[in-house]
Amino acid sequence: MTAIHIQGLGTYVPERRITNVDLMSRVDTNDEWIVSRTGIKARHMLAEDENGSDAAAKAALCALEDAGIEAGEITHVLAATCTPDYLCPSTACILSGKIGSHGAAAFDLNAACTGFIYGLETARGLLAAAPDAKILLVGTEAFTRRLNWNDRTTCILFGDGAAAVVLTNGEAGRPRKRLPAAARLRDVRCGADGRQYALLTVGGGTARDYRPGDPVQDDFYLQMQGREVYKLAVRSLSAVCEEILERNGLTLDDIDLFIPHQANLRIIEAVGDRLKLAADKIFVNLDEYGNTSAASIPLGIGDACAQARILPGSRVLLSAFGGGFTWGAALLEF
Ligand code: ACO
């Protein structure tokens, strides 16, 4: 049966690795506090001459190779990011120029850390309207460029990275280099509560009227009310997982692997407890990358495939939450 499939996947994490101990030279913190409160041990940081669009291009070229599709065949380039190179033009346009998808529609999509799931929802709509579309969806973030290094409660949490998938209507087909099989996108569910927008903001937009030469204010950087985000995250992740399973007539027994947004191990464990999900069904890689926002879910898919935690026939539940406040879940069948 023809259905929407992920035909290829690529990931890119910058070489520069910053451990918790490395952070101690920048901010008053320690490895024990960060590991016990978050589970994070390291994060990766873009090189000075590298932008989010460069990371996206590296991930995208791997995904295209994996899918066996040329950049020139792509009809739509979608970049999920909340740390774009510029407010305008979009990172998707810059990415498209870098990989050679000239003529393809290109636009950014900002749902913060839920960006990749929103991207799947957008791709699903585009593929329903244009069944021959070939869509490149990239989650890419340069979060270390918008952290306030004077705020130890937030600057320890985030890292940079990118991951890309190619989506088309098609069959499951042959195994890929980075996927055990093409993954059918069975369902997606997205939601938001804009009343909670102030819980997590990243400045640089037009809400503040900067004049040439003005020094940047603290709200230029990521600001977060951590405790409130924590509570909402646990509630919204659990609820959207239950919702997507119910509307597909599934239970958690039918899920082989749960890949949640990698923000904080305590949030992931609390969701696992609420859902009564066995720990060995929950994928975690935030210890190595920190929170890579829109790149977190596809980086998780890539690592889970590389570790053979996803096999042909696996049913995988993805779920994320983020600034906005946004949330979402998706079901993949390999
Ligand atoms: N190192 C050492 N001590 C610290 C640090 C640090 N890095 N940060 C804070 N502390 C201290 C505080 O100063 C405070 O000390 P005090 O009691 O003497 O005043 C104490 O630790 C507790 O601080 P809290 O901020 O209350 O710590 P909390 O337990 O709430 O943990 C955290 C903070 C980890 C940020 C938590 O609230 C959290 O994980 N929230 C969710 C964040 C999240 O997932 N965000 C991603 C959103 S997704 C997106 O869209 C980007």
TrEMBL record:
<dbReference type="Pfam" id="PF08541">
    <property type="entry name" value="ACP_syn_III_C"/>
</dbReference>
<keyword id="KW-0443">Lipid metabolism</keyword>
<dbReference type="Pfam" id="PF08545">
    <property type="entry name" value="ACP_syn_III"/>
</dbReference>
<keyword id="KW-0275">Fatty acid biosynthesis</keyword>
<feature type="domain" description="Beta-ketoacyl-[acyl-carrier-protein] synthase III N-terminal">
    <location>
        <begin position="107"/>
        <end position="172"/>
    </location>
</feature>
<dbReference type="InterPro" id="IPR013747">
    <property type="entry name" value="ACP_syn_III_C"/>
</dbReference>
<dbReference type="GO" id="GO:0033818">
    <property type="term" value="F:beta-ketoacyl-acyl-carrier-protein synthase III activity"/>
</dbReference>
<keyword id="KW-0276">Fatty acid metabolism</keyword>
<protein>
    <recommendedName>
        <fullName>Beta-ketoacyl-[acyl-carrier-protein] synthase III</fullName>
        <ecNumber>2.3.1.180</ecNumber>
    </recommendedName>
</protein>
<keyword id="KW-0808">Transferase</keyword>
<keyword id="KW-0511">Multifunctional enzyme</keyword>
<dbReference type="InterPro" id="IPR013751">
    <property type="entry name" value="ACP_syn_III_N"/>
</dbReference>
<feature type="region of interest" description="ACP-binding">
    <location>
        <begin position="262"/>
        <end position="266"/>
    </location>
</feature>
<comment type="similarity">
    <text>Belongs to the thiolase-like superfamily. FabH family.</text>
</comment>
<comment type="function">
    <text>Catalyzes the condensation reaction of fatty acid synthesis by the addition to an acyl acceptor of two carbons from malonyl-ACP. Catalyzes the first condensation reaction which initiates fatty acid synthesis and may therefore play a role in governing the total rate of fatty acid production. Possesses both acetoacetyl-ACP synthase and acetyl transacylase activities. Its substrate specificity determines the biosynthesis of branched-chain and/or straight-chain of fatty acids.</text>
</comment>
<dbReference type="InterPro" id="IPR004655">
    <property type="entry name" value="FabH"/>
</dbReference>
<feature type="domain" description="Beta-ketoacyl-[acyl-carrier-protein] synthase III C-terminal">
    <location>
        <begin position="245"/>
        <end position="333"/>
    </location>
</feature>
<comment type="pathway">
    <text>Lipid metabolism; fatty acid biosynthesis.</text>
</comment>
<keyword id="KW-0444">Lipid biosynthesis</keyword>
<keyword id="KW-0963">Cytoplasm</keyword>
<dbReference type="GO" id="GO:0006633">
    <property type="term" value="P:fatty acid biosynthetic process"/>
</dbReference>
<comment type="subunit">
    <text>Homodimer.</text>
</comment>
<dbReference type="GO" id="GO:0004315">
    <property type="term" value="F:3-oxoacyl-[acyl-carrier-protein] synthase activity"/>
</dbReference>
<dbReference type="GO" id="GO:0005737">
    <property type="term" value="C:cytoplasm"/>
</dbReference>
<dbReference type="InterPro" id="IPR016039">
    <property type="entry name" value="Thiolase-like"/>
</dbReference>
<feature type="active site">
    <location>
        <position position="291"/>
    </location>
</feature>
<feature type="active site">
    <location>
        <position position="113"/>
    </location>
</feature>
<dbReference type="GO" id="GO:0044550">
    <property type="term" value="P:secondary metabolite biosynthetic process"/>
</dbReference>
<keyword id="KW-0012">Acyltransferase</keyword>
<feature type="active site">
    <location>
        <position position="261"/>
    </location>
</feature>
